[in-house]
Design a protein that fits this description.
four-stranded antiparallel beta sheet, 8 strands
C-alpha cells in the first residue's frame, strides 16, 4: 500500500509527488487525458485496504484534490484509461 504518483518536469529537471497530500493510499496506473488537463488513476481510500477497496479517481490538474468516481460501490475498480477524445474513461471492475 505504498504506491505514489509523481510528475517529472524535464525542462526544470524537477520531480514532484502529486499524491502527497491526497487522502488516497496506493495511487497508481495514471493516464493523462488527451488534452493533458486531467489524470485518471486507481487507488484506495486512506486506511481502506480490503480486496474491494480499489476506486477510480479523476484529478483535474487545476484543482487541489481528485474526485472519487466509483466511491462506495463495493466493487474492485482498476486500471482506468481515457478514450481517444477524452470524453469517456474505460476501466475494469471485479
Amino acid at each position: 500500500w505504498d504506491s505514489k504518483l509523481f510528475i517529472y518536469d524535464f525542462a526544470e529537471q524537477l520531480l514532484l509527488e502529486i499524491s502527497l497530500d491526497w487522502d488516497i493510499d496506493h495511487a497508481m496506473n495514471a493516464d493523462f487525458s488527451p488534452d493533458g488537463s486531467k489524470i485518471v488513476f486507481m487507488g484506495a481510500p486512506a486506511g481502506n485496504h480490503d480486496f474491494n477497496s480499489w476506486d477510480i479517481y479523476l484529478w483535474d490538474l487545476s484543482s487541489d484534490l481528485p474526485t472519487n468516481l466509483t466511491a462506495n460501490n463495493g466493487l474492485r475498480d482498476e486500471d482506468p484509461k481515457f478514450s481517444p477524445n477524452g470524453s469517456e474513461i474505460i476501466f475494469k471492475q471485479n
